[in-house]
Structures are given as C-alpha cells and as structure tokens.
Amino acid sequence: MRYLVFFLFLLNAYYSPGQVRDVEQVDELDTASYLWLKKVRINPYITAELERASLLDNQASNLALSWGVLVNDRFSAGTFISVMTSDIGFPLIFPNGFDLDLVHGGLHLSYLWPVTKSLSAGVDSRFGFGEMEISYAESGTDVFSTRFTSVNPSIVVDYQVGRFVKLTAGLGYRLLNGYDFNTDELADLDGTTMRFGLKLGLFKRLKWPRVEEGTGDEE
C-alpha cells in the first residue's frame, strides 16, 4: 500500500498543472519555430554582369561573376570576382605608354524590396581586395603591381522574367584604397560604376491572374 501511495504521489507531481503548462509552452514554441522556418526560402543563384567603371578619366569595361544564396527573394549574400577587360592608359611617365590592369573580388551583400510582383529595388554593397598591374603598352611587360582594397555601394534593380531568370542593373560608386602608388593621377581611380547582368537561380513563382474560358463578356 505504501508503494502505491508513493507511486500516485510521483505521478501527480509529474502531471501537475504547472508541468502541463510547461509542456504546452514548449509545444507552442516548437510550432512557432517550425512555422517560421517553413516560411524561410533559401535558394542559390549566380549572376554574370557587364560593368562600366570610371577610371583615370576613362570608362573601363569589366566582366563580373557573383554567386551566393538568396533568402526569401530579398536578402542575398555571396562572393564576386571582377576582371577588367579594356586597356586603360596609365600616364606614369609618357602618356599612353603604359597600361593598367585590375582584378578584384570579395564579399557582397544586398537587400531588395518588392515594388511589383516582378520588380524589386534595393541596395548592394561589395567589399573586396585585388591587384592592379602596370605594364608597357607595346610589349606587355609588367613594370609594377600593387594590392588594394575596394568598397562599392550601389543602388540595384531586379526584374524577374521567369521562374529561373532575372535581369539586374546597378548604379554605384567604387572606392579603392591601400595601393602603393604615390602619384596624383591615382585620385581618379575612384569613380562611378554601372552594371547590367543576368541572374540565374530558383526564384519565387510569378502568380499571374488566370483567365478562364467562357468568362468574357458576351453581347
């Protein structure tokens, strides 16, 4: 009999109202966490871009490639690499006697707000490091090289044209720091940037209104 009373006492203590409330609170928290995680969509993407940047009073062309993850079609984070494809004269000693080449890459972060079901606008920031080389224009022999850091904040626009395709454009300003040159011409290495690109990934579905047959106005 004593063992039965002791067992009933333990059973009552375990299933007391306070214990039941704690279990219910845990269940509610688990349910809320599950519903929150269910709403989070994380998808990979890759973007190819053509970029124009002000450099030494010229417009330099760059090819850029970026990739990363997109969260709920708004926040994205990833890496990028940009390679200059045009020849820019560097007036170190003789005008047009030297060429400047530049390549850099790093981290990019962006956040977009939906404007319409297909159009989004927001901000993008790129933080990276790279290397620039000066070479003879005629022979291509390297003369000097230095490393640098870069910061490029931009305003960006994305237009979704399909389930897996977006068109993207951006306008920003690029700052280069940390190079070893001591000439006045290098103040012109900072300048505006414009880029246009194609973004591929698994994006949200475009919900177009359905047109059902036989629902038109008939005279």
Task: Give the helices and strands, then pairings.
Blueprint: H1 2-14, H2 17-39, E1 42-55, E2 58-71, E3 75-84, E4 88-89, E5 98-114, E6 119-136, E7 142-160, E8 165-177, E9 191-201
Antiparallel strand pairs: 1-2, 1-9, 2-3, 3-5, 4-5, 5-6, 6-7, 7-8, 8-9
Short recap of the structure:
This protein is 16% helix and 54% strand. The chain is α+β, with helices and mostly antiparallel strands and 219 residues long.
Descriptive notes:
- With 219 residues, the protein is of the alpha+beta class.
- The chain has two domains: 2-38; 41-201, Porin (Beta Barrel), CATH 2.40.160.20.
- 16% of the residues lie in helices and 54% in strands.
- The protein has two helices and nine strands.
- It has helices at 2-14, 17-39, and strands at 42-55, 58-71, 75-84, 88-89, 98-114, 119-136, 142-160, 165-177, 191-201.
- Strands 1-2-3-5-6-7-8-9 form an eight-stranded antiparallel beta barrel.
- A hairpin with a 5-residue loop joins strand 6 (119-136) and strand 7.
- The chain starts with a helix and ends in an 18-residue tail after the last strand.
- Mean pLDDT is 78; it is low at 19-24.
